[in-house]
User: Fold these one by one.
Assistant:
Number 1:
Amino acid sequence: MSAPSVSGPHVSHLKDLDYSVVQQCMHCGLCLPTCPTYDTTKLERNSPRGRISLMRAIADGRLEPTRTFADEMYYCLGCLACMTACPAGVNYAELFEHARAEAEQSGVLKSAPRSLIRNFTLRWLFLDLKRLQWIGRTLRFYQRLGLQSFVRHSGVLRLLPQRLRELEAMTPAVQPRFSAEMISAVTPALKPKRYRVAVLTGCAQDLIFSDVNRDTVEVLARNGCEVVTPPAQHCCGSLHAHNGEWELAQQLARKQIDQFPPQDFDAIITNAAGCGSHLKHYAKLLADDPIYHQRAQTWDGKVKDIHEWLMQIGLTPPLAKGQPVQQVTYHEACHLCHGQKITMQPRQILRIIPNLKLIELPESMWCCGSAGIYNLIQPEMATELLDRKLKHIKSTGAETVATGNPGCLLQILNGVRVRNLSLRIVHPITLLAEAYRRADAHF
Ligand code: SF4
Ligand code: SF4
């Protein structure tokens, strides 16, 4: 059987899925100790093996999608640790996306508030990033005028239900300037030009970590890349694919391919692990699209995570002059280490920075609980995972935590703020950009 068709509504996402993917699990259980939800509950249904059995039962027509099935798919973090552990090469990422799409298609989770939130976010806000930026600007105004701080100190938030108070406390600080206000549409290579690349500035990344986008472009330009960053970009659709909105994810993939024709670039760069893991699989997403499938195959080959690309082209080390001693530990974003199998390159980049001591983090590959919007929909499990992560971070004695994904940055930042810890949380590329600037200042 082929991948689900783009041309009409699916009968069933799991039944339509290539059966070789559905039946690959041999029930060995080697993935169980790596699964954070199974590790917490020790229940088979909360394990990869249990979830795959449920998916297969639906694909085989032995089970209809039920509320329990759908809840289970949303209790899964989608961290893909099970894929790394699996000796049979089970493609859990593909199963997971289709299982969530099946859950959505069945309507078993439908409720008016849930539909309202999903329509607002997935079908409106993230379908046109101008809308997201408008919300971002409003939030920035609210924060910079001191209104957020005033509201927080006034005690009025005590009137809200506890869950809303918790969500309010997680509101991220919006950057003073978005990517397009800091980065030219085309940034020339600072050295003789070797490559022409595009940088995807992302959706939430652009609002909350536009400084990481600026640093990414700067580092690329310093290493011989001409960088193209159109001011108006689209969401990559990973949020949609991970939340069961398969058709919307396809729509957004086509927009990306139209905006960044892959044949025009040596590489299409992302600095967000969650996006990268999704962006590299457009060919599968558009498998039955006669117009886009071939272009999607070229696209997949051009998408590179920033760490991967820099180590591939060879990085100019920053000069040692003026570099402070730094003790840094590295948290591996799930969608970088499990989703893209990129583990060495971020460490190599950190080790290139003079006077930076990299201290290995125990359980560096264990999910921090961010997992897209998991920390919003499953707060208890997300907090448990965050506590575990922070305990390990503290044990390293490092003053800085580096990680290559906006979700992880935000999750750990929130944990540090709430617990009043003195830790800097930063993208590895920012540490590299800072090292270049310091070296320039001492030249
Ligand atoms: S993706 Fe993560 S949470 Fe889900 S089954 Fe695999 S290891 Fe467990
Ligand atoms: S997913 Fe892989 S590791 Fe887990 S039970 Fe199935 S075959 Fe074994």
Number 2:
Amino acid sequence: MPASQFICPDGTCIAIKDCLASCQRKQRCMFLPTLRAVATSLNRGISEPTVTELITGTRETYLKKTVNYAVNPQSVLYALHGSALHSINENHSKGNMLTEIRLNDEITSGKFDLYGEILDQDTGVLGDIKVTSSYKIMKALGKYKVDVPTGEVYKSGLKKGEIKYKKEWRDDGVKGILDWAIQLNYYRILLEQQGLVVNKIVIQAMCRDNSLRIANERGIDQAIYLISVNRISNRWIIRYMQHKAKAIRQALATKTMPPICTTKERWHDRKCLGYCQVAEHCPHGSSLDSSIEPPLKVVS
Ligand code: SF4
Ligand code: SF4
């Protein structure tokens, strides 16, 4: 069941179809075409669990499919950034490449963004476009800071005689992209099932806050980064996706709330506190203290 209501700026809820037909206020909170685009992005008309739904917490996916929930249009505009960028790329994809095709198998379905000669002479590149935060890009690149001695010592004060250090960025840390890697490796498997060869998987991550100081403090100073994704064994990926697909199908068939999303899936509760659209329908989400300010967003 897709989102059925919008939350107006004053906190009241209105059925999306009623909002689109006529605003209950003197002036709409945003342009009508933008609201229509938000409504379309919320209802993709796909009933089976998709790859992106399977890599999400099973409880969250279950609730999104079974309850009437409300969203604040302001808080889902980021999804339109991604859709707009996909459309731009699709409109300019000529020659030896495929774009935005939904592929299915007996487990799930997934729509890849780009495939073909999109980066170099290699015709087997699977590309994915993400619009995301500087935090997520910092993690995806494996960036971290280390203390490096400057060669100087403090000449006075409490630290007199101690070595001075400065912070330097390193790019060889663990890449925090497991969710992206699972998603893209499954698209790879779907393409390979069609007889296509995938030689490389690359994410083009566009930073949505790259001009802000916070991005600079995270070592992110470009608008776009290319991030390579390693192959994960087919056996592991297929078993994982089978397990997730079985869990959501069983929950839907028996109308049983799945167990709480894993700590990673719920971003150590940050998602439950501010970014899960169905939190108020989830016993865990509604039990948390909503007065706690959720820290930065980490999703794509
Ligand atoms: S346009 Fe905005 S304020 Fe008006 S009904 Fe829709 S969500 Fe509410
Ligand atoms: S509130 Fe948290 S635990 Fe509940 S569905 Fe949302 S992400 Fe999962």
